[in-house]
Fold:
Amino acid sequence: MIIVFVLAVALAAAGALFDWRTGHIPNKLTHGAIGIAPILHLGLKAWAERGFTTNVWIEGGLSIVGILFCGLVPWLMFWKNAIGAGDVKLLAGIGGLLGPMLGMEAELYSFIAACLIAPAFLAYEGKLLPTMKNALFLLLNPFLKKERRREASPQLMSWFRMGPSIFIGTLLACAFARAPQ
Structure:
């Protein structure tokens, strides 16, 4: 279903563009994708099978499972203030369009892209080494005695726009996906 791949990449591209320019991913974009994905899968499968069979309902259910699976880890990260709510909803929408397996693959590629882009971005801004030092303190503090703990500098806490990484991850997942047999 090439149309689903095209829609997922278009959704990720629009999310990346909005995130890059404004720092926000619009709710109209993400809520629309989350709401339309199961209906789209139901309609496409019903059209392909010439009616509503059990496979049609399974396809719609898999879209909902994709939303839940692909939204769970990002939601936990949002809960810990690690990523923004728009990123969570964008990943959930992509999971709804691509389904749980390919959606999780797109999410994994997105996080790998973020792990590669973020240090380059920090180095460009001249914040890489101080931010790495800050991260080391955050990592080691729970294991140190109170008198040896160091306070992490709030000025070195960096915020990173995930939209472009999500676009790269979605594009890679769709490019590497095998056609159904």
